[in-house]
Design a protein that fits this description.
The chain has 141 residues and is α+β, with helices and mostly antiparallel strands. Helix content is 31%, strand content 32%. It has a four-stranded antiparallel sheet with strand order 1-2-3-4, sandwiched between helices. A three-stranded antiparallel sheet has the order 5-7-6, covered by helices on one side. A hairpin with a 2-residue loop joins strand 2 and strand 3. The longest helix has 15 residues, at 85-99. It is globular. It starts with a strand and ends with a strand.
Length: 141
Amino acid sequence: MSFVVRRAEVSDIPAMHVVRMAVRENQLRTPGLVTEQHYREMLIERGVGWVAESAGRIVGFAVMDAVAQSVWALFVEPDWEQRGVGSALHSALLTWCAERGLPRLTLSTAPGTRAEQFYLAKGWEPKGSTKSGEVLFEMVL
């Protein structure tokens, strides 16, 4: 099946959160840690997001925190992994950042995961660890 990437809207938040909770790695162990208000703040006040949609269903999403110049989220529904969804969302995010002249971006992810390998393959540079033990990555645009 094919998919399209489009800008995320506030009305997409429930479906985005379903994807977030479905991932096999980097699972949100404390569901209340990321609330609808966090998504709203990212989409309305701090940044922008994109969703990958197939047949009217959201199968992945990415959110950029433009204030912190950090990738807040990039998640793909498990059944849609390895189909180019993550790469398409990543590309949309980087294009948006480059068009706005953001010089460098950061993100973090759990070590030893497919996400870590994905970011390494996309050219992100490891820059140590966060206080919580995640790998800290940086990309210079």
